[in-house]
Amino acid sequence: MKLKQLESILGDVTQFSSPKIDLEQYPTGPHIASRLIYTAENSFGDISEKIVADFGCGCGTLGIASSLLEASLFYIDYEALEMAQSNTMELEVEMDFVLDNIQDLAWRGPVVDTVVMNPPFGTRRKGADMEFLSAALKTAKTAVYSLHKTSTREHVRRGALRDFKAKTAEVLYELRYDLPASYKFHKKREVDIAVDLWRFTVS
């Protein structure tokens, strides 16, 4: 599947109508999601015919993109599975769902090759982003793809390599995250945030 086709399909994914600020629920738009999954597959072969877990799946965009590229999928979330399930049925893709809290996750399912995620940035609850990364690196057999604010780059790199024992930590792209006004305290219609697309490998 070509990149533009994947992005077009992901444009049909229904996003949150009432996002929860304490969970930092923001949509992963089709532009960023398509590039994350397309790069993971076409540059590294980490999606097609692999077992992929979408951590904190939200509306399911990353997981749906992975499934469209022939991955076997697990969605893991604590709050948003209903929305993800609705989207997967609408787009006729198949996957399994796991209701769990990332902090308490003790994975007992099949071996997961690749974890994909757009975790909380840790703005509302400090350290939330690194909790997701820690859990992902404990679960993945091969690689983790994750989005983090560019301003936290050195913190993320240090945590991954020193604290979580990742084998490698590489920024593949710096992207612009168009964050729409989702909450009452947002004063602008949208904000442009610099984010890094990371690939971590597991030792």
Describe the structure.
- There is one protein chain.
- The protein is α/β, with parallel strands linked by helices.
- The protein has 6 helices and 7 strands.
- It has a 7-stranded mixed sheet, sandwiched between helices.
- Helix 1 (3-10) packs antiparallel against helix 2 (30-42) and helix 2 packs across helix 3.
- The model has no long low-confidence stretch (mean pLDDT 84).
Q: How would you describe the shape?
A: globular
Sketch the topology as an H/E string, one letter per element.
HHEHEHEEHEHEE
Distance between the termini: 30 Å
The major sheet is characterized as:
7 strands, mixed
Structure summary:
This protein has 203 residues and is of the alpha/beta class. It has six helices and seven strands.
What secondary-structure arrangement, pairings included, does this model have?
Elements: H1 3-10, H2 30-42, E1 51-55, H3 61-68, E2 72-77, H4 81-90, E3 96-99, E4 112-117, H5 128-139, E5 140-149, H6 153-163, E6 166-180, E7 190-202
Parallel strand pairs: 1-2, 1-4, 2-3, 4-5
Antiparallel strand pairs: 5-7, 6-7
Helix pairs in contact: 1-2, 2-3
Write out key terms for the chains shown.
single chain, 203 residues, alpha/beta, seven-stranded mixed beta sheet, 6 helices, globular
